[in-house]
């Protein structure tokens, strides 16, 4: 009967075994055909097919004859003979004093296994100017993060290495509560803070805990497409509610779906228009939520970066706290790659959301969270915000100046007082594909305003991310976009 030797997972049957360190792997994921001739032939046959189909990668050091004989339960001499056969076939090389290695074969000799399914269609990360979601990988920040993470790992005891609180690292939760009180004017109990791996993740936990598929949810229009997708994928009925110069139009929402169960809003800095929701609208929204017993999902994604004036208090801080699920993130402040964000829950929602969290992934990882808490506690994060504000403000100014110079009247630039993106609006009345044509001509990476709308309404334009990009590259891209817009618009006259 066949004996399966260390076939640990399907993964190993597909992925070539490599050994960068030059050490032999502990065991080989091989199956010996025990029905075939001698033990030497069985070992030879198993290794030969693994080399030919790519499971054993070129350059891999094969285990010693003694250890392979032990794994396979065969005589050592059988392995010695098998290795000699492989060498004479050109499939392995013996290097005196260091062992036997899988030989490098000409490409056609190998028949590397293909994954059965077509590769998944994964969107490439946008990186060129004006891609959104980019932040500066500040060397000082990286050094401090590396040091703090290392310290955490070095002093970890059994408890720190084991299962944790479903809400996440206690130190980070209490630092976040402190930060929200001083920067966002909203007092919360660290017990109500939940660490999540992104705002989307927080939204999913909320939806699963507190809504039912088919429930109506207000969504800003234009609005953040990622949030819209998250709500739609959760089986909710997404109701577009227009945004004007005061933010989400609460009366229009009430007319369209007064009994909706929730509303998704970005009141501090509406995405993508950049509008700050007026106090009158905030109060109207909170009143609606109270009377409709609806939840407000407040996405406060970039309030750290204000370039003028103090930020308005978060919705969660203006007396609507019992209906507001507050979502904050470190994606802009530090970097999206950390996958570190948080939600603050009203006490009435806490148990249900925690139960859902435990059903998904039990609890979030704690080492990076603890390191970020350390940076918050010792004031580094506040310094980082100050430094990044200066940096991003000058990137914004460089992009705005270059756009205005190159575009003339073809673009109306809305320079933001907050955040990491700006808006460049085209004149009204252009053909529907004008913005896409200009983007293609300028070869810049930008979302179009129309791509964030559910209902066509008003002029199109460009949502331009300026965080994390080199200022000179930004200015060059801004000039290209401005010129392309000008040529297009003037060409229609
Ligand atoms: C409106 C809005 N919400 C949330 C996020 C991202 O948050 P996270 O990375 O925590 O999912 C972004 C990122 O650009 C955003 O624009």
| Major sheet | 8 strands, mixed
Strand order of the largest sheet: 5-12-11-10-9-6-7-8
- Mean pLDDT, to the nearest integer, reads 91
- Put simply, the count of helices is 16
Report on the architecture of this protein:
With 493 residues, this protein is α/β, with parallel strands linked by helices. It contains 16 helices and 16 strands. 41% of the residues lie in helices and 14% in strands. The strands form 4 sheets. Strands 5-12-11-10-9-6-7-8 form an 8-stranded mixed beta sheet, sandwiched between helices. Strands 13-14-16-15 form a 4-stranded antiparallel beta sheet, covered by helices on one side. It is globular and about 85 Å long. The N terminus is likely disordered. The structure holds pyridoxal-5'-phosphate. The site of pyridoxal-5'-phosphate has 14 residues, from α8. Pyridoxal-5'-phosphate (PLP) binds next to α8.
Give a brief description.
The protein has 493 residues and is of the alpha/beta class. The protein is built from 16 helices and 16 strands.
What topology emerges from the helices and strands here?
Layout: E1 3-5, H1 10-14, E2 30-32, H2 39-52, H3 65-72, H4 76-88, E3 92-95, E4 99-102, H5 139-154, H6 158-161, H7 170-184, E5 193-196, H8 199-210, E6 216-221, H9 225-233, E7 237-244, E8 247-248, H10 250-257, E9 262-265, H11 279-292, E10 295-299, E11 324-329, E12 341-344, H12 347-360, H13 367-377, H14 380-407, E13 412-414, E14 421-425, H15 434-442, E15 447-448, E16 461-465, H16 471-491
Parallel strand pairs: 6-7, 6-9, 9-10, 10-11
Antiparallel strand pairs: 1-2, 3-4, 5-12, 7-8, 11-12, 13-14, 14-16, 15-16
Helix pairs in contact: 2-4, 3-4, 5-13, 7-13, 8-9, 8-12, 14-16, 15-16
This protein binds pyridoxal-5'-phosphate (PLP).
Pyridoxal-5'-phosphate binds at residues 132-133, 198-200, 224, 266, 271, 299, 301, 329, 331, 336, 341.
């Amino acid at each position: 009967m066949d004996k399966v030797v260390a076939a640990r997972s399907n993964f190993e049957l597909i992925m070539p075994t490599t050994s960068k360190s030059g050490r032999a792997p502990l065991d080989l994921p091989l199956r010996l055909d025990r029905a075939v001739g001698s033990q030497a032939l069985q070992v030879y046959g198993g290794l030969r097919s693994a080399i030919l189909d790519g499971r054993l990668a070129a350059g891999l050091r094969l285990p010693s004859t003694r250890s392979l004989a032990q794994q396979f339960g065969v005589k050592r001499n059988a392995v010695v003979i098998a290795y000699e056969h492989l060498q004479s076939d050109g499939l392995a090389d013996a290097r005196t004093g260091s062992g036997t290695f899988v030989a490098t074969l000409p490409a056609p000799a190998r028949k590397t296994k293909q994954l059965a399914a077509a590769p998944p269609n994964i969107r490439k990360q946008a990186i060129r100017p004006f891609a959104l979601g980019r932040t500066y990988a500040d060397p000082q920040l990286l050094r401090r993060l590396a040091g703090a993470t290392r310290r955490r790992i070095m002093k970890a005891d059994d408890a720190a290495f084991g299962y944790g609180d479903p809400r996440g690292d206690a130190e980070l939760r209490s630092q976040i509560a402190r930060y929200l009180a001083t920067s966002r004017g909203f007092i919360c109990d660290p017990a109500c803070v939940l660490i999540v791996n992104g705002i989307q993740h927080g939204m999913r936990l909320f939806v699963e805990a507190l809504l039912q598929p088919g429930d109506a949810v207000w969504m800003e229009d234009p609005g953040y497409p990622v949030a819209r997708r998250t709500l739609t994928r959760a089986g909710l009925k997404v109701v577009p509610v227009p945004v004007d110069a005061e933010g989400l139009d609460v009366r229009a929402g009430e007319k369209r779906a007064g009994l909706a169960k929730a509303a998704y809003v970005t009141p501090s800095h509406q995405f993508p228009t950049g509008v700050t929701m007026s106090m009158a609208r905030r109060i109207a929204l909170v009143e609606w939520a109270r009377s409709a017993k609806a939840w407000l999902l407040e996405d406060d994604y970039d309030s750290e970066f204000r370039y003028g004036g103090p930020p308005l208090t978060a919705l969660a801080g203006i007396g609507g706290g019992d209906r507001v699920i507050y979502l904050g993130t470190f994606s802009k402040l530090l970097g999206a790659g950390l996958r570190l964000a948080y939600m603050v829950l009203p006490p009435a929602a806490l148990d249900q959301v925690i139960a859902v969290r435990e059903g998904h992934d039990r609890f979030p990882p704690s080492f990076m969270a603890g390191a970020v808490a350390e940076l918050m506690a010792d004031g580094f994060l506040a310094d980082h915000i100050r430094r990044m504000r200066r940096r991003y403000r000058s990137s914004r100014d460089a992009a705005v100046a270059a756009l205005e110079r190159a575009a003339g009247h073809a673009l109306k630039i809305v320079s933001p007082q907050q955040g990491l993106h700006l808006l460049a609006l085209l004149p009204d009345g252009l053909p529907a594909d004008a913005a896409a044509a200009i983007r293609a001509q300028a070869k810049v990476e930008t979302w179009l305003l129309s791509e964030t709308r559910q209902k066509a309404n008003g002029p199109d334009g460009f949502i331009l991310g300026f965080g994390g990009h080199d200022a000179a590259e930004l200015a060059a891209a801004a000039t290209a976009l401005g010129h392309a817009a000008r040529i297009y618009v003037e060409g229609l006259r």
